[in-house]
Amino acid sequence: MNITWELAHLAHVELLTPKLDESIRFFTEILGMSISEINGDSAYLRAYDDYEHHSLKLTAHKHSGIGHFAWRTRSQESLENRAKAIEQKGLGIGWEDHECGYGKAYKFRYPDGHICELYFESNKYKAEGEHKSALKNTASKFPGRGMNVRRIDHLNLLAKDIVAFRDFQFGVLGGRMSETIIFDDEPKGIWVSVNSKSYDLAITEDHSGLSGRFHHLTYAVNSREEVLLAADIALENGVFIETGPHKHAIQQTFFLYLYEPGGNRIEIANPTARLILDPDYETVVWNREERMKGQAWGLKTVESFHTRGTPMPEELL
Amino acid sequence: MNITWELAHLAHVELLTPKLDESIRFFTEILGMSISEINGDSAYLRAYDDYEHHSLKLTAHKHSGIGHFAWRTRSQESLENRAKAIEQKGLGIGWEDHECGYGKAYKFRYPDGHICELYFESNKYKAEGEHKSALKNTASKFPGRGMNVRRIDHLNLLAKDIVAFRDFQFGVLGGRMSETIIFDDEPKGIWVSVNSKSYDLAITEDHSGLSGRFHHLTYAVNSREEVLLAADIALENGVFIETGPHKHAIQQTFFLYLYEPGGNRIEIANPTARLILDPDYETVVWNREERMKGQAWGLKTVESFHTRGTPMPEELL
Amino acid sequence: MNITWELAHLAHVELLTPKLDESIRFFTEILGMSISEINGDSAYLRAYDDYEHHSLKLTAHKHSGIGHFAWRTRSQESLENRAKAIEQKGLGIGWEDHECGYGKAYKFRYPDGHICELYFESNKYKAEGEHKSALKNTASKFPGRGMNVRRIDHLNLLAKDIVAFRDFQFGVLGGRMSETIIFDDEPKGIWVSVNSKSYDLAITEDHSGLSGRFHHLTYAVNSREEVLLAADIALENGVFIETGPHKHAIQQTFFLYLYEPGGNRIEIANPTARLILDPDYETVVWNREERMKGQAWGLKTVESFHTRGTPMPEELL
Amino acid sequence: MNITWELAHLAHVELLTPKLDESIRFFTEILGMSISEINGDSAYLRAYDDYEHHSLKLTAHKHSGIGHFAWRTRSQESLENRAKAIEQKGLGIGWEDHECGYGKAYKFRYPDGHICELYFESNKYKAEGEHKSALKNTASKFPGRGMNVRRIDHLNLLAKDIVAFRDFQFGVLGGRMSETIIFDDEPKGIWVSVNSKSYDLAITEDHSGLSGRFHHLTYAVNSREEVLLAADIALENGVFIETGPHKHAIQQTFFLYLYEPGGNRIEIANPTARLILDPDYETVVWNREERMKGQAWGLKTVESFHTRGTPMPEELL
């Protein structure tokens, strides 16, 4: 299969948190997610329409940041092809067996140090009893709790060397670049689309000198109205709102940026009105002048958005 | 003051339920309301932006139906004026002192037997601690639970003699008739507006031969999108949906009709995009041909909507 | 009648524009309003559910700003009572006969010089032919054009002396103060409610030393989603967006501020989910610390919002 | 490439109409689409975010119905592979050169007689001047006209033999079956997904004895609120509403069914909150009992929905 289409979707993200209990409470009570399993220092959670065992793993740690993230591939063959390609680049860590939600996975590092896994075998979530939805085509019951997030949407990482990230992503892993920021011939950010969603992963330039930093993780709701309701819920529950709700010019995402108690930036968004169905979609390029206009409706990007990332823990580097 | 403006708004409704605990659970967990007080066989509840002690009283009873309802008047003077006028018509029951949420009230019967109270003194709800909203102009915190109903909206009763009801309402109590159904010179229903909302009370014809029947009680949400979310929450929780979501031609109300476990019909609606600001608004009259078109977008009215009302308990008659 | 309730609603606003044709195009093509009449240098416009002949009069002038605005009273008697009270304060200008949309009006000045009229007789708009709505309770057909604004909502003026404005409004004209900003015992802004809407008029402090300045005029749409769509329409048509969409902490208004081609600030909002039904509502007071928090979800108020008003033309002063 | 992923998306549909001018007016003024080209008896139209030259071709004809429809493939190689496979089945018609919006196409018949084309080369739409969107990632400017449909969403055909259709679709053309109705082991309908959208094509059983019939063509809007606004626009413009707005249990589509003046059924929907990202998604099967429950919130399916299809013109059979 063409390398473009070998990844199926962003599967899950492991976030590290110095306040595990409070983080769990945030994702379950405020975002409306459910716990699939608690295992040692880690909790596995999913949104009501995530079809897998979990889309979020929360692990207790002295710092916030990202532990690892995972792509599900389109097939077992795709998984093996990609593992081989990564190995050839010398970025592979190796195969691991998982018992919690998914099967054999190939672990590796992205050029900026972020740890990632590829896998195909998935122990899909089977809703039972009170968790079963009245609609057979929904993974589990609409919770009617907090922000009612529907599914994992995308991940945004920071990286020092965008060119290296880009070459690795599209030359070795797959996907296509739906949008990019280029200032004076230097790429500053790229958006990776692997299916009809316009992106599952974004990487933006890190000016801090650090490696493997996390910018934000996004959960999707069904409508812009629900993003507005989420803002009220954040306000009413003392959750810090960094910026939004507003509409990004890039990708047209209607966004709301929050911080979970562990210190990781979380976005609530409604990005799916826009889809990329065009199989040879031409990358949209944003230049400096265009970026200076701010967000879609003119909101200036808050400074912290450009600078604040969550460092990768030393022992993972 | 002009009689038109002496009533301020529909204040609360007492519903009778043979399943008090299940009814309480329905209104708190599904609708997202809170309990202000439990007193003997009655529970007092309010929606998050209801400013009074309660807008709903649930009382255990062997049948479902309405116990009483209440109007708050615009002033103490209005209360006394209206009490006098009712007394003169011979429909008065008398003054009562309340300790639960409101002060001295004048009790009386509408011509079809429904028991009603007028009062002015209100022990307004003071949100404290975790119930306090981050927005000073909201009565209490947005719950983020179930349907998140905002406030009581309106009440719909059934009556054998619409003319008698109409004459009593507008000749003795106050308000103005925003809309009416007239078939062959016979009024079949009237909508009573006492403020800028286009109605707080509706009365439609009862063909059953019974008296004092209840049709439905409505709670408002902020948007039509939230009515759609409410439909999903009803579906996911096994709540019977009688009809909707759809838009009434009459009053343009975007509606969803449910049944609470005690057997009373409850509407979730978003009716406030429409306001009547015109002080000499001319009543909108609907004839048979117009009603035959069904609801705004052509949905046929379900048969049960025309026939099913909740009887008034014998001992209250 | 109690002075509180003698005004029915904000009826219309006359805006001055140095670009009459472009302003007309803005309000008809972008906002979706209709022209009721053109008369010399003035155009009379209405939103699709405005029940009167016009809610906006656009008059050609070398500067932008407000010409006059008008309240409709609840009755002819209210009109006469208020005219007498104003006369006694020495702020009256006198009675005028209008042929364009409304009858005999009493003209006067607010303490900061703004010209205002009171009237009761209204030549209500009668939709005919293609302008007739399929819904009998809508003033005219939903346009399906541009932002589809529904009705005039409120007016915001600037005044040097908020205390004088407040005393005149509530002591002579009527209404009640739903919200106010007070810094160190000095009122900085007041919000005037005359019906169940939480405000029809706002007055905020003018630091410029000028008199009779205009801040903004607001048209309402039915939902927050339509405010978001309006933002896209503004963006697509080169209309300057000053700030928004976002939610005001004050009054909870979901706002979008634009400039029409003549230079007047126009707001598109969805303020009616909140109503004040409480007849003895206690004014919400905002202090400096609370205002420093910015808008409801934390957006900082743009500087121009505090400083930019449209001056009153010299010859009207 | 795996056959599953060789089709990229539903590209365009040709509808026949006995009232070409009125049909053009409907799609441009009511739906808000634009004309790309008029060529003889055909008009080519697109929604504002359709990236190709057209998604709808309207052709004058004495009857309503479907002329042909087209899939765009993921690559030139996919096109050639599929053409070969069809040829082997004996259902091919042959290659054609198009000058109007797309390049070399392979024409063939589905088993029930519907004419279809596959192509890869596309003359993508380049918005210029006033049609250019302020957002670089939108194909053209948001129109602010009528229903503002965003893009073509899906097509529903009728067929006598669902098994034959299914075998041809998944055995020869590609895609996967996201949902199906099966009564007593007999398939009654299938939904074809070729990308992350849960379907681009649906085929339901035809009981009429006719061949090649058309059921409906769907355009997507961004939100459920816009579907509700579309219902009002239909109502205000005398467009017949067959059923809706409501939510399908199947696929969760929030729907509104209309008829265009030529007699073809058109759906306005907001189906994209649901995506299928799972690469080995298991087909959802609906049985008779489940279908008897009606739509998601209990609305009974209107009878005409089961019976009314638009016949294929004789000369095309």
From TrEMBL, chains A, B, C, D:
What are this entry's molecular-function GO terms? dioxygenase activity
The VOC domain covers 9-121, 151-271
Q: Which domain of life is it from?
A: Bacteria
Keyword annotations from UniProtKB, A to Z: Dioxygenase, Oxidoreductase
Instruction: Report the PROSITE patterns cross-referenced here.
Output: VOC (PS51819)
Q: Which residues cross the membrane?
A: none
Q: What is this protein called?
A: Catechol 2,3-dioxygenase
Q: Which species is this record about?
A: Arcicella aurantiaca
Q: Lineage of this protein's species?
A: Bacteria, Pseudomonadati, Bacteroidota, Cytophagia, Cytophagales
